[in-house]
Amino acid sequence: MQVIAGSASTSLAERVSRELGNSPFAIPFTKRFPDGELYVRVGGRLADEDVVLVQTTRTDEQILELLLLEEAIREAGARRLFVVIPYFGYARQDRPFYPGEPASARALAHHVELAADAVVTVDLHSTETLRSFSKPAYEATGVPAIARVLRERTVDLLISPDKGGVDRVRRMAGILGKPWLALEKKRIDSDHVELTLPEQDLPPLEGQHVAILDDVISTGGTIVEAARLLHRYKVATVVAACTHGLFLRDAFERIKAVCDHLYSTDTLDNPADKVSVAPDIAQILQRECASR
Asked: Catalytic residue positions?
């Protein structure tokens, strides 16, 4: 099995290759023509080989690169192509919300799977997106990776910033053997939320070391408000951790101002301290894909 890295996921792809037993690893050649069009070329012998292509699709340019690399790998004669998309762009538009809108996640899924034999993603916005694929599609999660780093810290209580993250924080609690709670969230606008603690079954907070868990951090508004709320109850430390760290505008600096530490997995390049999902992706490739 050979691993090929898209430009958005070079480091993660190399880690995946190591987790697969030091599989051959390659970075394609890419360039832009004067008119702006993208050129890609994969090297090495791929004929009759199983190939893993790793590429995050946060931007339109990264999506196009993924599609061209898929075609190039097929042209090179690969036997099977497993596409790993650590951060699946357009996943939040998983259905039309108003007349005339596309289900963008479904549209991207249909194009990605045209040249793929199977697809692996990490912490989709909605698991319903997996149903958009007609070919085998699997979802890894950043929870075990984050658990690996939190296990090395003092953590007394796990926090979900809203009820939508209950499954995530409950799974983390099962791994670490820690209590958890979910905050009550009321969204004011795209950048502002109002958070409150649950009225029942509230454990003591003063002096506690707490960790806030989320799947995606974009503008950071929810994490900042959660940290401020917890500090009002005199917690000792606040750690924030997420799978996908977008950290738009000044989100990283705002979060660091109210949190003692900030972790993100390596699905996206960002300035947070990284924990790798490579072992979890490799496990799916070995268990589900390679056995097909």
From this structure: 185
